[in-house]
């Protein structure tokens, strides 16, 4: 270490290697250390560094202020500092790359801060490179999170809690069969529309996160695609994403629907949840749609799955039981800094949020194979002088006949989809939205790995 930071206990250390790279994370919980290590490795890879040892250390405000005073002559705590070490060949082990010091109470996003610090360490400088570093940073975060990300430098946010207060924060992965109500529950928790919802199974294709923050806790809910056996590259990626999210979560929330008996799909997921070996909570959703007897039976069926942890009867639709579930989830969170600014409700960037609102209307307006054959990409969002937005979007399908259905007689279908989506987009944006929507055939997009990469399904 270049800095004279106090040495954390061994329980706080996470050290891992990847090819010739070694990244050590100090001062973070096990789960957080794993995430930050992955972020650092992704940034090193993007910068073309393939060997060396790097340390990421989390410090409190007082320590950050001291480092700033000593090395930069500034009496302030900042979000991240990089201390490169050039050309020092260690006697044993990989060469030293340097240290990235991160101050969680000053960060809006810890992964972003680590990527930012590592890129600086690798010689990038956003103040002089005309956007090159921030573009690379956005690219790394996109790859890490499987969806488009912003490209701003880490910014300082004031947290609602003082630095002396202990906070709890962590990731809760929602695992359950398609259609049991995972996205509806995330929206209910976040108090806003984070994820689109439909009565068609496999609505959710990417991991989206909803954020709920209390005085001294923050729950990050990872809405996941309904777990399933893969059929093509798209569904294989969706399932791989779910497995990774379970492994990366602090708590797993297993969800079934009271309206259907527990089936092989639910048991398959219960197995994956058990394998993840995380603190687990189960919820029986949609109790508003069944009588008490059926709810009791569903609770019993879940009990027989023999998962660890408590079981909650809830209705994501009406909110019944959701507050009790939330309190219990918070009690299982590890102690740690907030992971998002307290005012955040989701991590979904505007392009993706708009694309999903359009896809939601496609799901509402079409049937059979069409909903699953459609993907939406927002290519551009323009702001007009009057403050309104112009959103350019492509609606892909796989065949000419699907295109004909989507356009409809006299263009009626695409108009109906567009105007319903536009209304939702205007609510989200808070300003009027003009939508330029084109229907295009893109054969086999569900198998096109390059394309799936580009649209963030990883
Ligand atoms: N009655 C009732 N319906 C619900 C409830 N929660 C969700 N639903 C409905 O169930 C359907 C599926 O909800 P989603 O939230 O999209 O389900 P999901 O688990 O995210 O589905 P995938 O994304 O396909 O995995 C929608 O029609 C919801 O309106 C509930 O508590 N009660
Ligand atoms: Mg969903």
From TrEMBL:
Keyword field contains RNA-binding: yes
An MF annotation (GO) of this entry: RNA endonuclease activity
Primary localization: cytoplasm
CDD domains recorded: Era, KH-II_Era
A cellular-component GO term for this protein: plasma membrane
Region of interest: G1: 176-183
Region (G3): 223-226
Ranges of residues in domain Era-type G: 168-335
Domain KH type-2: start-end pairs: 358-443
Binding site for GTP: 176-183, 285-288
Membrane-related topology note: Peripheral membrane protein
Keyword match GTP-binding: yes
Chain sites annotated for binding Zn(2+): 116, 120, 126
EC number(s) on file: 3.1.-.-
Ranges where the record places region G2: 202-206
Keywords: Cell membrane, Cytoplasm, Endonuclease, GTP-binding, Hydrolase, Membrane, Metal-binding, Nuclease, Nucleotide-binding, Ribosome biogenesis, RNA-binding, rRNA processing, rRNA-binding, Zinc
G4: annotated span: 285-288
Cofactor: how and how many bound: Binds 1 zinc ion.
Names of the cofactor(s): Zn(2+)
Source domain of life: Bacteria
Subcellular location: Cytoplasm; Cell membrane
Subunit structure: Monomer.
Family in the record: Belongs to the TRAFAC class TrmE-Era-EngA-EngB-Septin-like GTPase superfamily. Era GTPase family.
HAMAP family in the record: Endoribonucl_YbeY, GTPase_Era
Designated name of the protein: Multifunctional fusion protein
Organism annotation: Thermoleophilum album
Origin organism lineage: Bacteria, Bacillati, Actinomycetota, Thermoleophilia, Thermoleophilales
Gene responsible for this protein: era
